[in-house]
Amino acid sequence: MTAPHAPIALSCGEPAGIGPEIAVKARAILGTEVPFFWMGDPRHLPPGTASQVIHSPTEALALPGTVLPVLPHPFAAPATPGQITYANARGVVEVIARCVSLVQQGQASALCTAPLHKKVLKDGAGFKFPGHTEYLAFLAGVEQVVMMLAAPALRVVPVTIHIPIAEVPRALTPALLEQTIRLTEAGLRRDFGLKQPRLAVAGLNPHAGEGGAMGHEDAAIIAPVVARLAAEGMAIRGPLPADTLFHPRARAGYDVAICMYHDQALIPIKTVDFDGGVNVTLGLPFVRTSPDHGTALDIAGKGIAEPSSLVAALRMAHQMAAARTG
């Protein structure tokens, strides 16, 4: 397996959040182990940052690990940690689009995105997408993608994501479930080097419906899809009771857990590895990862932001890009 010959593009995210400072911390931790450059307005970096403006991504490869390579993108205004500036919303969206373009052109090996403030983008830039994932799918011209949260001890995929729990049964269709499973299985093969990924599918209801006593969706929707895919040769089991799916012995039996709704997936992974979880988008024609946390405006600029998830996201992007090119 060969390493990618281009650096990772790290988008700035919300400039008033912790994105700029954890980018600096990540560079200090990773050095040249994972080559990346940060795209944003240099004015938004913490004071005293050892950075170097570059004019093309390849220049990042020549810089020492103690210096943050910066591909500049001018924003409308300076940024004050913890204080939202709506005038900068447009710049945040433009940076994402520029980074995607660089990855599509092969000038960057992967995309890693710092957290967004969705309300700021909506109010300040008329952003019409629920978040990063949907915008990236739009830029890539892809109809459906899958959000996977990954850590060394656990990978999870929610089939339905940012919707009220009351809407989950209606949104959970056989077509959506099957497409999510297929994209997940293909992504584990392509980006994680698993020749025969093992998938565990959680039930929607307590005890996976308990034969219809606690809901009909498990038997009517989930079980037929799982049976059909298993008959094709996929290593898949389910529906399985979610309350016994995430203890260590259970986790040893699968490579990813397919979950039916947001909290069913995210509570376990954030309990198992709160700082090391990585948000991965499967189904895109390029690699995309992100730290599994928000902008943390309340601690921005205080120097206490934890960079572990960003470090893990950059490392995972590097490994995934190598898997695609190796």
Structure description:
- There is one protein chain.
- This protein has 326 residues and is an alpha/beta fold.
- The chain folds into two domains: 1-143 and 284-326, Isopropylmalate Dehydrogenase, CATH 3.40.718.10; 153-272, 3-Layer(aba) Sandwich (Isopropylmalate Dehydrogenase).
- Helix content is 36%, strand content 17%.
- The chain has a twelve-stranded mixed sheet with strand order 3-4-2-1-5-12-11-6-7-10-8-9, sandwiched between helices.
- The longest helix has 19 residues, at 174-192.
- It is globular, with a radius of gyration of 20 Å.
- 49% of the residues are buried.
- The mean pLDDT is 95.
- Its cofactor is Zn(2+); Mg(2+); Co(2+).
List the keywords:
Isopropylmalate Dehydrogenase, 326 residues, twelve-stranded mixed beta sheet, alpha/beta, 17% strand, 10 helices
Strand order of the largest sheet: 3-4-2-1-5-12-11-6-7-10-8-9
What's the tally of helices? 10
CATH fold node name of the largest domain: Isopropylmalate Dehydrogenase
Terminal CA distance: 4 Å
Broad CATH class of the largest domain: Alpha Beta
**Overall geometry:** globular
Q: Mean pLDDT, as a whole number? A: 95
What is the string of helix and strand elements?
EHEEEHEHHEEHHEHEHEHEEH
Tell me which CATH architecture of the largest domain applies here: 3-Layer(aba) Sandwich
* Record field, number of beta strands: 12
> What proportion strand?
15-25%
Largest sheet: 12 strands, mixed
- Ranges with pLDDT <50 over ≥5 residues? none
Helix percentage? 25-40%
* Rg, Cα atoms, Å: 20 Å
CATH superfamily of the largest domain: Isopropylmalate Dehydrogenase
Number of domains: 2
Category from helices, strands and their pairing: alpha/beta
Cofactor: Zn(2+); Mg(2+); Co(2+)
Family: Belongs to the PdxA family.
Subunit structure: Homodimer.
Binding site for a divalent metal cation: 162, 207, 262
